[in-house]
Structures are given as structure tokens and as C-alpha cells.
Amino acid sequence: MNRIMRIVFVAGFTAIITAVPLFAGQADISGDYWYGWLGANATTGVPGSDSGTMSASDTTWTIQYTDDGGGSYTETMQIDDKRVIRGGWLEVDATQDGQSGTLTMASTGNVLVDVTRTPDADGDYGFGLYHKKATGMQSSDIAGHYACFDHWLDVSSRGTSTGFGTASFDSDGSWSYISPGGSGTGSWSINGNATASLSIAGEETVELGIGPGGLMTFFDTDPLESDDLGHSILLKKGTGRTASEALGIYLLQGLYTDNGENPLTEWGQVSLQDDSYWLMACQNSDGESYTKSGTWNIEGDGYLQMTEFTTGSLLYEGYLSLDAGLIVAARMGDYTGTAMMVQVPEPCTLCLLALGGIALLHRKHGIQ
Questions:
Q1: Residues 6 or more apart from 192 whose CB is under 8 A from it?
Q2: Rounded distance, CA 208 to CA 51, Å?
Q3: What is the spatial distance between Cα 65 and Cα 75, in angstroms, rounded to a whole number?
Q4: pLDDT per residue over 74-128, tens digit each?
Q5: For 254, what's the count of Cα atoms within 13 Å in the CB-facing half-sphere?
Q6: What is the largest CA-CA distance in the chain?
Q7: 8 Å CB contact between 360 and 350
Q8: Facing residues of 340 across strands?
Q9: Which of 50, 182, 253, 325 has CB atoms 3.0–4.6 Å from 115's, for a disulfide?
Q10: Residues 6 or more apart from 305 whose CB is under 8 A from it?
């Protein structure tokens, strides 16, 4: 059973559950998706990964994937029900092989994200990302400048490499990247299967899954090539972005590791306020519940920083997606990795967030 399927049957969100109607964007999850998973064993730190696709309808989700052991699999879940609970989380009741459970996810309709909140059947913590396949893409749609978020786990040495860099896709078919781990150049092309083929000079050719909102992803499942497993998540930069586009409530989910590849997952809510302040109420897989706050700012290309009051240091830095529904961010500190922040549609001016008994009141711009 793949890791996403196993996550379904793990106990979900611990706050008081109040079902509310599905918002249109969250309910519309039917379609074809790219799928990737990255994680590590809670005890040994041994990494693992999956990469593949998902076909979703209102009644079934079918995932075809390859894992880090070289196996290829097809598995199907029956979708029994779905609802949005208090705080904006999407809950999906599912049945597979006679076993039923609930998957708690963040959803924009185009992007689904979840993390393992307690170790799965293999003892792993992990991060799962599904995003819809783009349609009708042309080379001109891909060309541009991107932020690149990397998280790589060494198979033999149990080392962690995380990076926040940039990549440029030029209209002449060439591309280049710069990250903390190095730089390189190569060529790129697009094909009809919503993938971009990247040839890295002197190294390899990889396939990026193209999604909406300037999102492209690659999950590596070959531990033999470079003795590591990991992901690269690319998000296209914009122009003329403003703070008003980023205001709102976000569901945060992330997988982080320390230098020994000890995994930590985090989930919760973040409110970006119109007074340049942010509030957070989160939990993590170590059993901690906490609130944090600080200041945030955004630049014209979508670059966003969140600085924590308590330490005065940068906690997250990332980019706002072109459709303003997603923030991809690198987490700083002893545990580093990639956090996905999915914006919650707001049916009202004031939205109450609840997590483990902690409440945050979100003020939209113009409301004091």
C-alpha cells in the first residue's frame, strides 16, 4: 500500500470538528494530478519517496506510482464522503480493501497537501503533494523566472540538504539554476503530457510535472543515482505583486529534517494580516502545540518573508503563487525543509481558526 493510502487510516485533526459546506474550489477536486511523497523513518531516519499520478473523481481516487524500491503500483480508494471542518481543513472519508479511514488535507481544488501526523504503518513521517496537471501549456507559458525549493535526504550518510534557490527558463530552450548547493545550466522542452524535460549539463535528464499557477514538481525515487532521495518544487515568480493579494488564512503543512534526517512534520493555520503582522497556531509530530507571531512583507515578484517576534529571526521565506492560492516556503532553524501554505476561501469577513483549543481571529483588510 502506498504511503498516501496508509496516511488515510491515521487519526486526523484533533480540534473540535464542526462540518461546514464545501467551498466551490475545495469541492472541485476531480481531475488528473501529479503526485509525490517524501519522508523518513521516525526511528532510523531512513528516507523514502514515491512519484506518480492520481486520477480523481467524486467516488474514486486511483494512484499509479513508483517507489524508491523500484516497484510500480496501482491502487484505488473509494471516496465515501468529504467535508470541510472548522478552520478550513478538507476531510475525506475513504475505503480501501475493506478498511475505512479519514484523510485530512489542505485543498485549493488544484493542489492537495497532507502530512503524516503520527507514524504510518512503516513508521515513517512524510509529506504528500498532489497538483492538477496543466492543460494546453505552451513553451511561452513556462518561460520565466522561478523560485526553487529543494529537500534532499542522503540514503547512506543520513545527511540533509535543503535549499532555496532560483531557476530561469529561457525562450530559446536553455535554462540555468542557482542554489545553496551549487549552480548549473542545461536545456529544456515541453511535451503534451504536462511535463517539462530538463537536461542538466554533465548530469541527467529529469521530468517536471507541470501544474497550474506556475507550479512544477519533481520527486526523485532513484536512490542509486546520487545516493539520495528528495524533491524540487518550482514556483514561477510574478510581477507587481502586492500585500493585498497575500492577505488571508492559510493551512500550513510541512516536512522538515535535521542533520541526522530525523523527521518532523508540522501542520496548522497561519493568518497574514493587513497590518504586516502574522499569527500562527500549529502542532507538530513531536506532540507540541504552539502559537507564534511576527511580521511579514512581500516584494513585487511574490517573494515573501515571515520574521518571528520571539527570536527576531527569519522563520519562513517563500513565494506566492501566480493565482494567489498557495505559498511555498523554506523553513529555517534546526529543522529545515519545505512548507506548503494553502489559502482558505473565506465566506465571511471574520473567520475563526481553531487548533487544539487555540483560537485566532483573522482581520481582513479594512476591518479593525
A1: none
A2: 11
A3: 9
A4: 999 999 998 888 778 999 999 999 999 999 999 988 999 999 999 998 999 999 9
A5: 31
A6: 56
A7: no
A8: 253, 328
A9: 253
A10: 296, 297, 298, 314, 316, 317
